Amino acid sequence: MRIWSVHPEYLDTKGLVALWRETLLAKHVLEGKTKGYRNHPQLDRFKQTDSPQDAIDQYLASVFEESAKRGYSFNRNKINWNFSPVSMQVTTGQLEYETTHLLNKLRTRNALKFIEVSNKKTLAPHPMFNVVKGEIEKWEIIQ
C-alpha cells in the first residue's frame, strides 16, 4: 500500500489508479470494514488525526479531483463529501524519499511522465499536507 504524500498530479495513470484503489482500501480499514491491513504503517498518520475518516475522505477528494481533470470516471460516491477539513504535516525528508521512489517507478513504466516529473525542482505535497522540516517519517518502510 502506498498513500503518496506528493500531489497526485505527478502520478502516471497506473499510479493514480493504484492510489485510488489503495486509498479506498485504507478507507475501509479505518471504517472497520475489513480485517486486513489494520496495522499498515501507511495508515498511522491518518489514525493520529482527530478524525481519521474525515482525513481519508479529504485525501480521496483530491485524488478524485485529479482523476476528473484527466477525464477518468472514478466513482465520486465512494467519498463522504461531508468531511470536515483536516490539515496534516509531512516532512521534507519524506517528500524527498517519495520523490526518489516515484521517479524510480516512472523511469521504468512511463518515460514521458518521468521526464515531466524529473524536470521539477521540488514536488508539491498532496493538498492536505503542510510541509515541515524533518527526516523520513517513522512509519515509512524504506526499500
User: Rg, please?
Assistant: 15 Å
- Which residues form runs of ≥5 with pLDDT under 50? none
Whole-number mean pLDDT: 94
Shape, per Cα inertia axes:
globular
What does the secondary structure layout of this molecule look like, with pairings?
Blueprint: H1 13-30, H2 44-47, H3 52-69, E1 88-91, H4 92-109, H5 111-118, E2 129-132
Parallel strand pairs: 1-2
Description of the molecule:
With 143 residues, the protein is mainly alpha-helical. 46% of the residues lie in helices and 6% in strands. It is built from five helices and two strands. Strands 1-2 form a two-stranded parallel ribbon. The longest helix is centred in the first third of the chain and has 18 residues, at 13-30. It starts with 12 loop residues before the first helix and ends in an 11-residue tail after the last strand. The mean pLDDT is 94.
Keyphrases for this structure?
mainly alpha; single chain; two-stranded parallel sheet; 5 helices; 143 residues; 2 strands
